[in-house]
Amino acid sequence: MSSKKIKTGTVADWIEYRLPIFSFLKHLGDYRTPKNLNYMWSFGSIAGIGLVIQIITGIFLAMHYSPNAVTAFGSVEYIMRNVNYGWLLRYLHAVGASMFFVAVYLHMARSLYYGSYKTPRELVWFLGLLIFFLMMATAFMGYVLPWGQMSFWGATVITNLFSAIPVIGDTIVQWLWGGFSVGDPTLNRFFVLHYLLPFIIVAVVLVHIIALHVHGSNNPKGIDVKSKKDTIPFHPYYTVKDLFGFGVYFIIFAYFVFYQPNYLGHPDNYIESNPMVTPEHIVPEWYFLPFYAILRAVPNKLLGVILMFSSIMVLFALPWLDRSDVKSGTYRPVFKKLYWVFLLDVIGLGYIGANSPEGIYIILGRVATLYYFLHFLFILPFLSKYERTLPLPKSISSKL
Amino acid sequence: MNRLLNIILGVFLYSSVSMASNIEKPQKQDWTFEGVFGYFDKQSIQRGFQVYKEVCQVCHSMKYLRYDDLKQVGFGEEEVKAIASSYTVQDGPNDQGQMFERPGRPNDYCVSPYNNEQAARASNNGSYPADLSLMIKARKDGANYVYSILTGYSDAPSGFDIQDGLHYNPYFAGKQIAMPSPLTEGQVSYSDGTANSVEQMSKDVVNFLQWAAEPEMEKRKILGIKVLLYLSVFTVLFYLVKKKIWKDVK
Prior knowledge:
- The complex is a heterodimer.
- Chain A is built from 15 helices and two strands.
- In chain A, helix 3 packs antiparallel against helix 9, helix 6 (122-144) crosses helix 7 (149-160) and helix 11 (289-295) crosses helix 14 (333-353).
- Chain A is an all-alpha fold.
- Chain B is mainly alpha-helical.
- Chain B is built from seven helices and four strands, in the order αααββααββαα.
- In chain B, a hairpin with an 8-residue loop joins strand 1 and strand 2 (100-103).
- The longest helix of chain B has 29 residues, at 217-245.
- The interface between A and B is large, with 46 and 46 residues.
């Protein structure tokens, strides 16, 4: 820990002796980081700022929002029309959710390519997946709050998934709803949980960062830090690089907020929820579409639900499915190609998820789902055994 | 930029919707509110309000709009008072515990033609004339869609089976709509002498509805330019600082 010599005198020393906050700040200051991180490593802190924006805008929205089935929709319109800059708060929050997912998906894609989930960072990866899972729950419940048609029917479809559980399924669904259909009690508890979960996410993010700082960041070469020459202090090098990253992120963010605020939403959510009228197509937000496609890939509800949850759970097994000693995709010629095929598969699943499961989309959905699991359960274990990897550079500093 | 987004994401999100029933794509019109420098055509919005007041309002409510809001599009204080007081608002209870009726005031929300959904359905053959406050945002490509619906009534092609009480409109889901063609040539007389063709009235009412759906739009777009300028400077500056700080790292 801290304090080799305890100089009495300054207030800072007095505090440091009791609560080593200054040495903690010092750690942040000279935390050593590989010097070869590329811009894909910016998405961690970008996701962090995304979370902060959601929490701040969310707190102010909650001051004006009314979580009641009769008044919810009207209170959102009240925010849009009568609260000072209410439209800005709400658009920042709604677009912010999408932007947060963009950052997290890119952050995850970077991990997948550079093998950041491998030894000794398995727990960093697990904690990240836990954040992802909590984010999805939070985003889903947040989308229910405006109480438009997609809110209501999306909530109905997703909560109904639990009815696939044998024997106790229907009881669980009624327990989730607090009644016999999605209604006022459902909206009220979703609001409470939507407000609670982000703070739990913050806690998990802190543990995620603590775990990361034990062994430090992975890097594009995927080899360990050998000497101090391989590293630079986080501040000012990566703080300034991240600030530039924030700038680019905010520009895209602002473009959507000010010029396409409803582009990523669904028009039906500007129609107040009506339990008597079902929308023609019920589609989730874009960031759930790949999972939605997997859910609908099989004609059996229970199996679909199991597949959908497995598609996320399989990520937890990743450090043991991909056992190759070489972390970075740069030195794995076959893996590198199949990585892009996998990403295309996920994007394809998203496209399929946006369409109704008819005709060609049924077949495509099944093939893409099969490939998704094939990649994890067959291709990765196979590659880690038989792939001929390229020679690794001696160190981060060496030219080759 | 817009087109690029539409290609990348549009296919992603809604490609299914228009395919489903083979309905006509909305006709593309030029609107002043489109684009980064989009603005409200206040004259047209005022005419559109007149169309709403004389035609649409018979069946359609506008419950998120206050009479006061009309000042934003150029109606004067006295005009708004006069408009508001032409409506009867139920208020109360008074100190006798009775509900009573009084003339509308500027800060009242626009009075709805029906007391509730049931009353609306009972008077409209079972259909519910939707609230129009958010209509433009509640439909894909809303402005062009509403314009196309209003101007798109025609005789059904031979062999097309129309249900009782519905009307042929190729832009509506299922190509038949409960609302009868609302506008006829010359129906509303404009005081500013603008020609009152169906197309003109439709265009005016869409301008009005677009404003009603997002009254903050002009403010938002102007603020957006400032924010984007600020962020661009910020980003370039940090890029240069980054370059300088990283100069010696190799």
